[in-house]
Each structure stands twice: as C-alpha cells, then as structure tokens.
Design goal:
Structural class of chain B: alpha+beta
CATH superfamily of the largest domain in chain A: Glycerol-3-phosphate (1)-acyltransferase
Number of strands of chain A: 17
Largest interface: A-B, 15 and 15 residues
Strand order of the largest sheet of chain B: 18-15-17-16-20-21-19
Shape of chain A: globular
Strand content of chain A: 5-15%
Largest sheet of chain B: 7 strands, antiparallel
Pathway (chain B): Glycerolipid metabolism; ether lipid biosynthesis; Lipid metabolism
Pfam family, one (chain B): FAD_binding_4
Oligomer: heterodimer
Helix content of chain B: 25-40%
EC number (chain B): 2.5.1.26
Largest sheet of chain A: 9 strands, mixed
CATH architecture of the domain at 314-437 in chain B: 2-Layer Sandwich
Catalytic activity (chain B): a long chain fatty alcohol + a 1-acylglycerone 3-phosphate = a 1-O-alkylglycerone 3-phosphate + a long-chain fatty acid + H(+)
Distance between the termini of chain B: 44 Å
Radius of gyration of chain A: 26 Å
Strand content of chain B: 15-25%
Structural class of chain A: alpha/beta
Number of helices of chain A: 23
Distance between the termini of chain A: 53 Å
Site (Important for enzyme activity) (chain B): 348
CATH topology of the largest domain in chain A: Glycerol-3-phosphate (1)-acyltransferase
Chain lengths: 586, 588
C-alpha cells in the first residue's frame, strides 16, 4: 500500500495526508498516477466488461417483464421497445478505461496539490476494515454531498488507498460536459436523470443496472443520499429512492448482505462558495459545461486549506434489517418492486441514520467556528473579542467532543491565519482592529443589498457546525419561554416536549430530525445542558443554573435567523391578499 | 451396477447383526486409516470396498483441518445397564401377547430403535450415552391385522406408539418425547416385508409397509419390474417411512416421487383404518386423503400396506457427466433441461467443493496409463477449454429407457449443456458419482473419529432463486461457524439433486472440526439453524423430502401459517384424540 510504503504517517486523529509526498517534487504526480493498483475484489464477482453490464441488464427478468408490458400497452413490437431500452442504457452506463482514469488521476492530483495546500486527510483505520469487507460483501459508499469535488475526491481516494473504484450515480447534467463527461464516465460515473418518477421503463432499467452491479460486485456503488449538493453547508434530508434500490437485493435475498459505508467529506473552504451564495440570491445556477469549468479555473489559484475524508463504520443491511423476515418476498417474482410497510419504515430510519453518521464524522474547521462567531456579530467584532469568543466555543467543543480540527499553534495565530485565508470574505481594518465583512466584492445585481453574498457565505460556513447546536438551541428557546428572570426556574421534560416538538417539526426541512423522535432529541439537548452544568436534575425536574444565560443566549442568537425567516414568511402569507396555492403535501 | 447386492436379505435377519449400532450402515463397511496412513474403505459390499483413496486424507486435512493424531473415537461397547428402566403397561403387554406377535424389552433392541441418524443422536451414542427417554418395549407386528389389534390395545391401555421402519430418519422423528410418562411401544414394521401381490395388467403391486428399499427392488426385479423409487437411503429405509415422510427418489424424473407412485394406502388409526375404496389413477372426491397420510410422520397412525405403480425394468441404463465452468452455468443448464422437459432419470449438479471432493475420493489408479489419461484430461479441461479448477463443477447423469430413447435423450441433453459451456466428461465419472452417493453417508462416521461434525440437509426452491440461495446459505454457514468459534476451515457445499418445472431440490453438506469448542453439538445446531433460517429467508422450503420431525418443528408456523398448523392439529385431534401416536412430530 502506498501509504505504508512511503512511510506516510498517521496523525493523532487517525488521518494521513494523501498529498503529503506529492508536494515534494513535480514528478510525484506522475508516480501517483502510474502507481500499482490492485484493489481487493468481491469474492463472488464474475469478471465482466462494462459493456456486458448493460447487456446483462437487457437480459434480466425485470426488463423483459417491463418491455412486454410497455410493448403491449403502446402497441409496439418488443424488439422496438428493447431498442429504446438499449438507447437509455447506453446513455446511463459507465465504461472502464484504466488509462483514462490514470490520466484523470494525474490531472486531478495536481489540481488538488495546488489548491488543498494544507492537505487531503483520510482516516485509514476504517479503510483496512473496508478493504476486508469488499471481499465478502457488495459495498455502497454514501458520501456527504457539498461540492462537485466530492465524487472526484472519492475516486481519487479509492485509487490512492487501493480500494476498488466505485460506480457513481451522477446527475445527468455532467454528461453533457464535453470531454469531462466522458472522462467521468470512464472513471465509473453513470448518469441518472434527475426525476423519472413515473417513467416505468427508465425506473426498471436504472434499478436493474444498479442491481446487477451491486449483486455481481463489479464495483462498489456510490451515491449521495442527500440527492443533490447541499448549497448551505448543512445536511439535506435523505432521499429514499436509491436507498430502496440498493436495499432490495438484500431484502430479496439476491445478496448475502449489502454493506453501507457513510463517508463524510469536509472542506475547509468550498470551491463553490460564491456560486452557492449567488444561487441563493436568485442568480441562476450556470449550466455545467467544460468551458464554464475552464473559466472557473481562476479559482484554482487560491488556497482551499485542507479536506478531511472520513470513512465511517461499515453498516451492514443484514444487521440493520436482521429482524425482518425476508421470506415475505418468497411468493411473487423478485423483479417486481415491492417492499413491505415495515421495510419502508425502516428504510426511512436508515436514511436518517446514515445522515447522522455523516454528520458525526464530519470534521469541522476552525473557520466554521470563526464564522459562527461572526454570524452572531453582523456589524463586526474586535479581533480580541473574536478570539475570546472562539476560545469559549472551543472549551464547549472540547468538553462535548465536537469534531473540530484545531490547527497547531496558539488560537490567536491560527485565527489570524484563518482570517487571512478568507480575506475575500472578511477584512481586518487595521486602525480599529475590527473584523468587518468584506463589502468590496462585486455584486451582479445592484438590487440586492451589496454585502448579502458575504453574509450568506459566512452563514454557510457557520452551518457546518449547527448539527451540534440545533437541539440544545431549540431547548434554549423553550426554556426561555417558560422561565421568569431573577427566579429559580424548574422544568419537567413533559413541559418542554410540546414546544420542543413544535420547533423541531417547524425546522424539519432545515435540520436533520428523525421523524417521531422528538423525545430522544430532547434527551440529547438535556444531556448537552447537563454536561454544560446549565441544567441540574433531581431525577424528575430540572433546575436552571444562575450563570447559564450566556450559553442560552448564544444558542438562541445562532438559531434565531431561521425562526425569523419562518415568522416573516408567515406574516407575509397572512397579510397577503393573493390566493394561496399550497403544495399538495401540506 | 451401483452397489454390489450381496445376498443378505435384511428382512430375514435381525438388523443389529448386520448394521452398526452407533453409526451408519453395515458393520463391515467404513472409511479407515490403513497402516500406510491412507484412507481406505473396508468390507466388500460396494465398488469402493477394499480400495485405497490416497487423496482423501490430504483433502480432509486441508479442507477441514483434520489431524490423524487428534482423534475422538466412539466407545467400543455401550453400557446398557445405564439405560433408563422401562415403563411397562401390564394390561397392554397381556393383550399384545395374546395376538402372538413378538415383543421385546431387550435393552439393545430398545437402544437401536430409539434414534435416527441426526448428528446429535449419533454424537450421544458414540459417547456411550442415552437420551433421557427411550422406548419401553418393541413390538413386531406380522401383518395388517396385527397392527389393527395393536392399535386398539394401545387405545385401551393408553400406550404411546411410535412406528419405525428402517430408522434412517434425520429429523429426530424417532426420538421419544422426554415428558412422555406413558409406556412407549415402538412398533418395528420390518417383519411386514412381503410383496403381497403384483397386478401386471394394471402395473400395480401391493406391498407391506415394512419392506426395505433394496429388498423391494430386488424382489420386483426378479419379476422384471421395478418401482424406480431410489432415495439415497434405499439400502436401509422402508416403504412405510417413504410414505410417512414424502420421500423422493433419485430417478423421480422417470418414475415420480412417492406421492406420484402411490395408488392406494392403508393407515391404521385410533379411529379405525383409513383407506380409499378403489385403486384408481385419480379421483375427484373432496380433498385427497392420501395427502394427509403422506408426510404424517407417524403422528396419525401406522401405514401398513401400500399399493404402488410398478414399471417394467428399463432396457438400457447409461451414465454420463458434464463439466461446467462454474455453478451458475450448471444451474442455467439444468433449468433449461427442466424447461424442455428432457431431464434424464437423474441429473445432479455438484458445486466446485463437491467436485473437488469427488476427485479426492478417486481410488488409487491401477496403472501409470490411467493416471496419464487423467492428467491429459485435466490438461484439456483446464488449459484448452480454459476452465478454472477453483470454479468448475460437474453434473452427473443417469439415463434410463430403451436404447433408442436413451440415445435421443443423451443427444438433446448434451446439446443443451454445450449451450451453457458444459462439456461431456464421460460415463465413468457419472457412474462414480452415483456410486459415491451410497458411501458418502459412511464418511460422517470417519469425520467423527477425527473431531469433525458434519451433516446434510435439503430444501426446494424456485429456479430463479437457486444460485442465490446456494451462495447465501454457504456463506451463512461460513459466517456462523466463525461465530461459533470454529478454528478450522469449514466445509460448506451443495448440489442440485432434483429438477422440476418450477424449481429444484438442493442438498447442503456442512462439516467442521470442533476442537476447542466446549459443546460441539450445540455449536453444530446453531450453525444448522442459521442455515435453515437463511434457506427460508431465501424463499426455500423447510424440507424437500426429509420431513419435519422434531428437528424442524420450530419452522412449521412460518412455513404454513398458524391456520395451517390448526388444520393439521384438528385432523390429529379427530383421528387420535388421546395422542396414542405421541411421537410429537410436525406440530406440538
């Protein structure tokens, strides 16, 4: 293995820097791209070429069944329908070309070495386990999705670690990119349409395509459970369609197990930071194109800090669904998509579980802590005050085991370094030594308040941390509502639960809350405050400590903007005279 | 011929004079280490008898991890004085004596009829131990009327009856329920072993249920007939047992399974004799009561006389074999053969592990020439055809019929095989495969001598699930053995032994060396239960032909729904309200 051979060392958090040696000399990228690559193989895998993969799809029972149905319904010959199916599959399928992949790796590793100047860190301990798992079970990587870089990063890291390269369920938008599209395809991407809800044929072909790869184990599968890139730094709620597709082979006993590996990819600085801010301000998302990418290459001059790629613990579907009797699928053909209500229910919970694992393993940056402080001081803050606030948050974070990467050095040095790295967003005004959100940035649309984009960028970096704070913050609001200043305030869980549940339901699209688990969420929040000695308990009632207002106020300030947004929207809707058209699901 | 039929009528002898009390089969036949350190097969009954298999020991060493110095021999003699004292019912004894049928309360007679051949039963015997409850006495009815009298005496005196035929059950069907406080009389059917009549016009034969398979076929053969029913246990199992467990014969593709062969049957129940009033090929008269007798496993009454369809002996028998590059190709080929309905009398597909096991069972070549031929064949298959020895597998075939139709069948089958990458591997390999069927059962005892527990079990499964089920169950066995702390390689292998329109029968073999495990039997049971759970989860059945007994009772509700259990129970409740047939098989 490369990382052992070259003596690349593991840091105290269990990570190694993939780029470490590459910076030593320019020929190292060539050495990287031409390194030996012998990943472990799934023991039941029957070797086949990537064109045989989609050809086998055409031979499958599921596709035969659907072709027959559609041909009959539309009065076409089956041959014709098969031809149409073939076209769709060719559009969908990945190809394997190791040489293209190595070229890709060569280019990509150079780009990465230049932009991720602080390194790309990978936790290697779990990787050993995954390398073993790969031999015995089909594997599904489920990375968090924040950036275009995510799937390139995954493939590159797999290449580096001698893990088999995944087949990646990618959005159709990439396919239209010249050269890059086919390069992506050659390195394992297959392209799915964004929505194909009612297109039976597409659904059947896509499902079968994923199944055949998964069952035969040609490659590990990779897809993003959030469905799309989150533009705001927070996790998006899980999508269940693909999750059902990859669970089906286990539930219908076509594989012994399917092993899910949640992967958290955390960036110090996002390549798309401005793009996302403008998108949120209503500037349409540019269409993915190679020339667009070329134009964006100017962003490749900057330092984007470090990236942490964390492979989470393997999650076996066999263990997860172990209590369900798979024989419920014994009495109809397996190609018919049908899951029991129990299975559907557990599938949903699984989606949330995976997302929570991704959040737990994400490595937050010092910059996100700085952003958290800045976001609570929109008018600016003195450097001294900023550092003391960061110090205070650090004390909380250390106490409660938040995964935050604190770079070596004093906080003063590291915060200053951080501010320098993000000087395009914040500026330090020397005379007053005050942080100010940069307003020199050119805005596209003069109607928009001039420095809105910077605020959004700050907020997006802040958001990376919020999964640690959201539950206690909601409880902070509840406590605030029920307490009288200057008195000893006591609470019971039951008293808090109703308001807490209301708030978590209100914010269920903003944050990850497992449905119907408010009780557990409340427990978590109480635990947070108990650890912080904000609440003390005699078993049934909780008493608020006198010194607690700082934590509580801080948490409320952090989450306030989200509630205000709902409040404003509600105000508008109530006062609006226009008829309301509400989406059906409400 | 598959086996040398030595002139031993099982029916004329007391079985214990001929058969082992603590292992499988004939006293003189076993796998044994010879003075040169190779494994040989003793005796003179089988083709393999007296031969040395030089590859077998290395195979057992590398595949299961046996070590010749790590032995676990069975006790030489069993101390019968430790046997539980019989619970006797004097009134019943008196009534039975009056009928004139033989009765025995001899300890050895009771011991050998107290068990079947599941691993846990043999493990106990080899240690010289007994179950807490064994039969209190053995009765030997001579004919149907004896059974009628016996059952009514049992009802009168509230005695529990457990019928036994060949005693080859592998489901604990003969084990006496531990909490049975009544006298348990085990009814040995082997004295009822006559072919009562043969009706050549209608091709029917009425046979007493206690007849042993090989005796039946031999007696019929003397008349130029056969039933064609050949389960792997046919040397020792009885006709009544076949009906009671829904047995399946190797050549069912030509002759049918026991339910297809059965035209008429008499069962003596506590409510009286249950039978139909005619012997017709088919009738529409409500639910078919035969289907309640078939598979009743001794819980409703005693099967006394069976009328089977018989066939003229086939003119021509030919073996064959096909090698496939891998198991999946083999399954696809069998599926197509089943689809085209051109299956030979028997077709069996062994997986790669069994293929290699078969190689290990090859007797010493008798000359340089034949090993040279073997070498050439191997070279051709692996190098020229490009088969990977670690994936390839073999199907064995048996064709039966007149010469013309056999030739036709062969042509069709080999053509289909070629389409699936299969290549004929000769007649001899096929014949050897079938011969091994009978000696494989002896191998478990040899394993037990070297700290290895092993067992086989079967299921039936739809075609589209065959390959997945085989793979998953084998994997599950491997995983569960690891969980149980097995320190040596586990043998986990399977074969497809029967094909139907809608699916196949799959047989699994599992074995591991238990050194270092405190309770090998429970570890084994945990593995087998895990495997059975995996089978059911994969859409397989609880059993294809072994039955339920007490071993698989726990899976019945999952198999037939609680409503189904209730149906079975209500029939039992009517026919046997006092639970005279109290073996406790199938349902509680």
């Amino acid at each position: 293995m490369l990382y052992n051979k070259d003596g690349n060392s593991v840091d105290e958090n269990g990570y190694i820097d993939m780029l470490k040696d590459l910076k030593k000399h320019s020929f190292m990228s060539m050495k990287f791209a031409t390194k030996s690559f012998s990943p472990p193989k799934y023991s039941h895998c029957k070797q086949r070429h990537s064109t045989d993969v989609w050809k086998d799809v055409l031979k499958s029972d599921r596709v035969h069944w659907i072709v027959r149905q559609i041909s009959r319904k539309e009065g076409k010959s089956e041959e014709e329908t098969f031809k149409e199916a073939e076209v769709i599959l060719k559009e969908l399928a990945y190809t394997d070309h190791m040489s293209i992949l190595r070229t890709f790796a060569f280019l990509l590793i150079q780009i990465q070495s230049s932009i991720y100047q602080d390194g790309v860190f990978v936790n290697v301990q779990e990787v050993e386990n995954i390398r073993e798992m790969v031999k015995h079970h089909p594997i599904v990587f489920m990375p968090s999705h924040r950036s275009y870089m995510d799937f390139l990063m995954m493939s590159l890291v797999c290449f580096y670690l001698d893990l088999p390269l995944p087949a990646i369920a990618a959005g159709m938008d990439f396919m239209s990119m010249k050269v890059i599209g086919s390069m992506l395809r050659a390195s394992g991407a297959f392209f799915m349409r964004r929505s194909f809800g009612s297109d039976q044929m597409y659904w059947a072909l896509f499902t079968e395509y994923v199944h055949t790869i998964l069952i035969n184990g040609d490659r590990p599968m990779e897809f993003f459970i959030e469905g799309t890139r989150s533009r705001v730094g927070k996790s998006l709620n899980p999508k269940f369609g693909l999750l059902s597709v990859i669970s089906e082979p286990y539930l219908k006993a076509q594989t012994y197990d399917v092993v899910i590996v949640p992967v958290s990819i955390s960036y110090d600085r996002m390549l798309e930071e401005r793009l996302y801010a403008y998108e949120l301000l209503g500037v349409p998302k540019p269409k993915e194109s190679t020339s667009g990418l070329y134009k964006a290459s100017s962003i490749l001059q900057d330092n984007y800090g470090s990236v942490h790629v964390h492979f989470g613990q393997c999650l076996s579907l066999r263990e997860y669904f172990g209590h369900l009797d798979r024989a419920v699928h014994a009495c109809y053909p397996r190609y018919m998509l049908r899951l029991s209500s129990q299975e559907e229910k557990h599938m949903k919970l699984l989606g949330y579980k995976i997302l929570q694992k991704q959040q737990e393993n994400a490595m937050c940056s010092l910059w996100s802590v700085v952003a958290l402080v800045l976001s609570t001081h929109p008018a600016g803050i003195s450097l001294h005050h900023l550092i003391s606030e960061v110090q205070w948050i650090k004390s909380i974070a250390v106490k409660l085991n938040f995964r935050i990467y604190w770079p070596p050095g004093t906080l003063k040095e590291t915060v200053q370094k951080c501010l320098f790295q993000f000087k395009h967003i914040v500026s330090v005004l020397q005379q007053k030594s005050k942080k100010k959100i940069n307003n020199k940035l050119q805005m596209l649309d003069p109607v928009i308040q001039e420095n809105a984009a910077q605020y959004i960028m700050i907020a997006n970096y802040r958001n990376q941390l919020l999964h640690y704070l959201i539950r206690p913050a909601l409880l902070a609001f509840v406590l605030h509502k029920h307490s009288i200043p200057g008195e000893i305030n006591t609470f019971t869980k039951d008293l808090c639960l109703e308001d807490f549940t209301f708030l978590s339901k209100l914010l269920r699209k903003d944050f990850i809350f497992v449905p119907d688990k408010s009780k557990e969420d409340l427990e978590e929040a109480i635990l947070f405050f108990s650890e912080m000695v904000v609440l003390s308990s005699d078993g049934t009632t909780y008493t608020l400590a006198g010194h607690s207002h700082r934590v509580l106020r801080f948490l409320r300030t952090v989450i306030n903007p989200f509630l205000i947004a709902y409040w404003l929207t509600s105000q508008f809707l109530i006062s609006s005279e226009a008829p309301l058209y509400l989406p059906k699901c409400y | 011929e598959k086996m040398e039929m030595v002139n031993h009528d099982l029916k004329l002898l007391q079985r214990e004079e001929l058969l082992k009390w603590g292992g499988w089969g004939y006293n003189d036949s076993m796998f044994k280490l010879n003075e040169k350190g190779s494994i040989c097969f003793t005796g003179s009954r089988y083709k393999l008898s007296g031969l040395v298999m030089p590859e077998l020991r290395p195979w057992m060493e590398s595949t299961i991890g046996i070590h010749v110095k790590q032995r676990s021999e069975a006790v030489a003699e069993i101390d019968l004085s430790k046997m539980p004292k019989p619970i006797l019912n004097e009134g019943f004894m008196k009534d039975v004596h009056q009928t004139g049928m033989e009765v025995s309360s001899d300890s050895m007679d009771r011991l050998v009829r107290s068990h079947g051949h599941t691993l846990e039963e043999l493990f106990l015997l080899r240690k010289g131990e007994f179950n807490a409850r064994v039969p209190d006495l053995i009765v030997f009815p001579r004919n149907h009327d004896d059974v009628v009298k016996l059952v009514s005496a049992a009802v009168r005196h509230n005695v529990c009856l457990i019928p036994i035929g060949g005693g080859t059950t592998v489901t604990l069907a003969l084990a006496c329920p531990e909490n049975e406080s009544r006298c348990i009389a085990t009814v040995d059917m082997t004295q009822m072993n006559q072919i009562l009549w043969v009706d050549e016009k209608n091709l029917l034969a009425r046979i007493e249920a206690g007849i042993i398979g090989q005796d039946l076929e031999r007696d019929l053969a003397a008349m130029g007939l056969c039933t064609g029913h050949e389960p792997d246990s046919m040397e020792f199992s009885s006709l009544g047992g076949w009906v009671a467990t829904r047995a399946s014969g190797m050549k069912k593709n030509v002759y049918g399974n026991i339910e297809d062969l059965l035209v008429h049957v008499k069962m003596v129940t506590p409510r009286g004799v249950l039978e139909k009033n005619c012997m017709v090929p088919r009738m529409s008269a409500g639910p078919d009561l035969h289907q309640f007798i078939l598979g009743s496993e001794g819980t409703l009454g005693i099967i006394t006389e069976v009328t089977l369809r018989v066939r003229p002996l086939p003119e021509c028998q030919r073996y064959g074999s096909i090698v496939f590059p891998d198991f999946k190709h083999g399954v696809d080929c069998l599926r197509e053969i089943a689809l085209k309905r051109c299956a030979p009398a028997s077709i069996r597909l062994m997986d790669n592990e069994q293929f290699r096991f078969g190689q290990a069972l090859k007797p010493q070549a008798d000359g340089i020439f034949s090993s040279f031929i073997d070498g050439m064949k191997k070279f051709y298959v692996t190098k020229i055809k490009g088969y990977d020895p670690s994936h390839m597998c073999v199907a064995t075939l048996l064709f039966e019929g007149d010469a013309v139709s056999v030739a036709q069948q062969e042509k069709v089958v080999y053509e289909i095989a070629a389409k699936h990458g299969g290549m004929s591997a000769g007649e001899e390999n096929g014949q050897r495969g079938y011969m091994l069927t009978f000696v494989i059962a002896y191998l478990r005892d040899c394993g037990l001598d070297y700290e290895v527990v092993s067992e086989s079990f079967e299921t039936s499964v739809p075609w589209d699930r065959v390959a997945d089920l085989c793979r998953n169950v084998k994997d599950r066995i491997q995983h569960e053995c690891k969980n149980q702390g097995v320190r040596y390689p586990t043998l986990s292998t399977c074969r497809v032994t029967q094909t139907y329109d809608a699916g196949a029968c799959v047989y699994f073999y599992l074995g591991f060396k238990y050194r270092g495990i405190a309770d090998p039997v429970n570890a084994y049971l945990a593995v087998e239960n895990a495997a059975r759970d995996e089978i059911l989860s994969n859409g397989g059945s609880i059993s294809h032909h072994h039955g339920v007994g007490k071993l698989r009772k726990q899976y019945m509700s999952r198999t037939v729904t609680p409503a189904g259990i209730g149906t079975v129970k209500s029939v039992k409740e009517y026919l046997d309200p006092r639970n005279i047939f109290g073996s406790g098989n199938i349902v509680d």
